[in-house]
Amino acid sequence: MTTINAPAQPPAARRLPHGAGFWIIALAFSTELAFCAVPTPLYAIYQQRDGFPTIVLTVIFAAYAVGVMLSLYLAGHVSDRLGRRRVILGSLLINLLAAILFLTWSDVTGLIVARFSSGLGIGILTATATAHLSELGTAAGHTKSRVALVSTFANLGGIGLGPLIGGLIATWSTRPLITPYVAFAILLVVEGILVAFVPETVERREERPAYRPQRVAVPAAASGAFWAAGAAAFGAFTVFGTFMGLSSTFLVGLLGLHSYLLAGLAPFVVFMAAALAQIVTVRLGIRPQIGYAIALAALGLVSIGVAAVVASLPLFLIGGGVAGAGIGILFRAALGAVAAVADAGRRGEALAGIFLTAYAGMTIPPLLTAAALRVWPTAVVLVSLVTLAAVLVAVSGSRMLRR
Question: Least crowded by CB within 10 Å, which of 179, 217, 322, 372?
């Protein structure tokens, strides 16, 4: 399936300009990612209401990452065959279903199903929306730097805004488990209508190759560089996943703070710092990026560990922001390194392997952390976690530099 900038379009009466379509896709992209993160500060309410342990809370969160991984593997590439707009509409529909599940089936099983469904929608969205933004931006005459800036903020910025929105609603709304999902359901419906009028950027052909799942290819000649980048991505998403799934647990266990707003603010700080750091360092080469990433991530993670020992909220948030900046740069450097060493015809398959490895980092370490919290004190678990993450980032980043 060939991707071009000016394919056969829908009838003129139904087609928006490419420039308008670019901003609509950016809005839909950021909205869906914000929706996937909006339950972050609400988990404490569910936990208090139903009395389930932290390990169950983490299983609910991990269901999302499992859904993303499965969707990436099975359907992350199908927009090359079916068209970008059609796949994005499918993603919006899946997340609308997830919002309805949150509203109508809010026990533990329902939360797991809703989170898994949301992950399925995000898995088919991420690569598709990124490609669609690139193609629409080119057709509209946007510079590559503007497209990259918008794509970064739609992705990481959207994820960061979700918890903050959830925390604000949980703080001020009388129905915190209803209001956010109703609001996002309305947004998803409206944006689905708008996306239906966005220009397509993939030429559809009558002859289609047989379906196959996304292949995950490791470049044979550069397997060392690939696995070093994979380890870095795993470490980066370990930090992302911990702040997304367990921020309220750490705030309560370490600082005794039962604040929904702070539970949303902590991941907001991490993801917005990651987005801003990626933008600031976009013109640097991969080697300087990796150097800055290791330094910032190590400094931030050490600060989080110290914050756990001295029970300091400002140090916890500052450390999260500095670590977020470092791991944001590191993750982009990992993607750049893999893209550079992969065979041109199999670059997408190599990147798919990195994304799958990254989401494994968002699933496995938080689950192990939640299990450890049942045995050891919160401060001990957090210090151990950030120490392991710092070592993983330093070792994997150093290996990337050597290779």
Answer: 179
pLDDT per position as a tens digit, 308-360? 899 899 999 999 999 999 999 999 888 888 877 777 656 767 777 888 888 89
Here the CATH number for the domain that contains residue 285 is 1.20.1250.20
Radius of gyration, alpha carbons of the chain: 20
pLDDT of 207 above 80: no
Q: Could you give the CA distance from residue 332 to residue 120 in angstroms, rounded to a whole number?
A: 23
Query: What's the one-letter identity of residue 146?
Result: R
Based on the domain organization, do 49 and 176 belong to the same domain? yes
The pLDDT value recorded for residue 352 is 77
DSSP string, 40-71: GGGHHHHHHHH---HHHHHHHHHHHHHHHHHH
pLDDT tens digits, residue range 32-50? 999 999 999 999 899 999 9
Neighbours of 376 (CB within 10 A): 11
Tally of domains in the chain: 2
Could you list the residue range(s) of the whole structural domain that residue 108 is in?
17-202
Cα–Cα distance measured from residue 344 to residue 51, given in angstroms and rounded to the nearest whole number:
51
Please choose, from the candidates 257, 67, 59, 99, the residue with its C-alpha nearest in 3D space to the C-alpha of residue 167.
Answer: 257
Tens digit of each residue's pLDDT (9 = 90 or more) over 59-85: 998 899 999 999 988 988 888 888 999
- In the structure encoding, which two tokens stand for residue 115, read together? 């989170």
Using CA atoms, how far apart are residues 44 and 259, in angstroms rounded to an integer? 9
Position 2: which residue type? T
Predicted pLDDT at 219: 64
pLDDT exceeds cutoff 50 at 6 = no
Q: Phi and psi dihedrals of 70, rounded to 5?
A: -65, -45
| 212 in any annotated domain | no
Q: Which residues contact 330 (CB under 8 A, 6 or more apart)?
A: 232, 235, 236, 289, 290, 293, 294, 297, 393, 397
